[in-house]
Amino acid sequence: MNAYLAPADASAITPTCALQGAIAIAAFASNALLCRVALFNYCIDAATFSDIRLLAGGATLLVLTKLRPEYARQPSPDPDWISATALGIFVILFSLSYLSLGVSSGALVLFGTVQLTIFVACLLKGERFHRVALIGYLLAIAGLLYLTTPGVGVPRVSGLLMMVGAGVAWGIYTLRGRRAASPLSATAGNFLRATPICIVLGWMLNGDAHASVAGVALAVASGAVTSAIGFVVWGSVIRKLPAMSAAAIQLLVPPVAALGGVLFLQEPVSTRLVVSFVAVLLGHLAGSVGWCQA
To answer: Is 0.90 surpassed by the pTM of this model?
Structure first.
């Protein structure tokens, strides 16, 4: 069975779509917090956290597909190894980057990169855009560059590069997910297929392996709750919106994650981070408006 459908045309954001978007945003921000808490307290290493997250998420989604009769009667969707590979790369690089990045800067780099990845993909497909969009994305790039230029309080380059890689992988996964006929079945398969990919990458990139009960619990919560539920809800949202609108919605994640980092992890808010936030958010919003005017 073909697991992909042509994405819906651009449409207005309905109340249901807005609610689903809010749930997905909260889930994505919570993932950043859970990962950072686990790694910050040395409860678990990044690779083990990633592996358990994918396994818990895949198992949860698999159970959900078996419990719902309409999914149990459907043939299994065709395996999508490209999406699974993108997901595995995203999850391991996401975790490894939070060894050195704070929740705020990590979320900003991640979703700023996601937006730019989708923008470039749309350009390569020949989609038109207004000059306002170009100006907006140049501003967003300037904001990301300002966050990463040498100076006091700049995060480690290795963490930034890994988060950029995670953002590219998530952008690819988002674009492919817009065509999924069944977000639940497709996401369950992607999680399970991504696990061995994540294990291999973790073995190559990660060092000391360790895990406490608290670390395992945080990884399971990240996989079974915020990842499984968040990814399926997001998969439903992105099928109803144009690619750039879906990317723009994700820009709400960094402020939410930043607020959580300040409230729960007492992360400092630097002038550099605030300026970068403003530049990236305003740039991407301008880009999305310009895109709509094309």
So the answer is: no
